[in-house]
Amino acid sequence: MASLSKLRLPTLHRRPFSSSSILNPDSKTPLTSKQKSRAALALLKSEKNPERILDICRAASLTPSSHLDRIAFSLAISRLADSNHFHGIRLFLEELKTRPDLITERFMAHAIVLYGQAKLIDDAVQTFVKMPDLGVERTVKSLNALLFSCLVAKDYSEVKRVYLEFPKMYGIDLNLDSYNTVIKAFSESGSTSSVYSLLGEMDRKRCKPNATSFGTMIAGFYKEEKYEDVGKVLDLMNKYDMLPGISTYNIRIHSLCKLGKSVEANALLHGMLSRGMQPNSVTYCHLIHGFCKEGRLDEGKSLFKNMVDRGCKPDGDCYFTLVHFLCRGEDFEAALELCKESMEKGWVPNFSTMKLLVNGLASVSKIDEARELVGQMKEKFSKSADMWSQVEEGLPK
Asked: PPR repeats located where (predicted)?
């Protein structure tokens, strides 16, 4: 059970800094709020020094009302957590709670989730409990943030405790988002069967489950390989007058592919087509990844062609998957063709895949093509030019 004792935090010691010098050292022109956010995000992607990360965040005056800022917040907390700088996370978020513009439920909810991201669940609970002390009312929005925080931290027992105790304790009625978070926690923790009783509670409270509710249950039962229960959930969907749509089929296909059952997943695709349902790019990408992972590269390539022929546009991840596995299967010419196509669209596979392709091309006597790729990488990614120079030096002369 999370402690509800008051946190005692050390006095904050801020180092003097200038936002312009940190975020844009080459210019004396003041930055707009959006420019600050973009500059902060760019710096945070490569910064590892915890104190520097905190200074960047302070200089940008981040706020959860901005999508860019929320990404920056999340990235900063991840960097600090990776460095085990939990003290800095606590100080920073407690410091933000003193900003007049952030004394809102929206910010408190965001801070609660950030604590969960850092696996500081006691701090997340404290933030929720102490909200009235800061003049902020607790509603189902902040309770949902706490449930989600526990889910993000994979503290499933705490999700259950908050769900069972806090609504009565604080006089808050759960809504569909609340229940869907609890359903996800049960499904992720291997306790998907517990959701049946949850559905009964939802019925009593006249809170109708949606496609997300059932999709999460289906994914959970597949993960536990309880195929009969998958059928039960599909029957339940009919009971609620909810026909399985493309998202439900995609969840089923993805789940089967993760279990190494891509042939069964492909049968679902054909079932969709026979019912007149049109698969989307997500459907195909799940199947392509599944077949490639099982070493069935011909099926993967065939599905890719079928996908394009049907007018579905593959995304970057789909290209990256095929290029990677084709290289692993030593089909370097096909991998090169797809890689070029992907790069023309602005999507470049990661360093390890590209290195695999370059060395693979060299191994089949396509030295010129390998060197051309290296040259493109050095030009496009100047920061990793030294790494590519080392790869180039290892190529046959």
From this structure: 175-209, 210-244, 245-279, 280-314, 315-349
Estimate the crossing angle of helix 332-344 against helix 316-328, to 10 degrees.
160
Is 253 buried (19+), middle (13-18) or exposed (0-12) by CB count in 10 A? buried
Q: pLDDT tens digits, residue range 124-169?
A: 999 999 999 999 999 999 999 999 999 999 999 999 999 999 999 9
Which of 91, 27, 100 lies closest to 61, judged by CA?
A: 100
Among 313, 2, 310, smallest CA distance to 169 is for 2
Give the pLDDT confidence of 35-89 residue by residue, as tens digits: 888 988 999 988 889 999 999 988 888 888 889 889 998 999 999 999 999 999 9
Dist CA 379 CA 382 (whole Å): 6
What residues have CB less than 8 Å from 258, skipping those under 6 apart? 222, 223, 290
Contact indicator for 169, 184 with CB cutoff of 8 Å: no
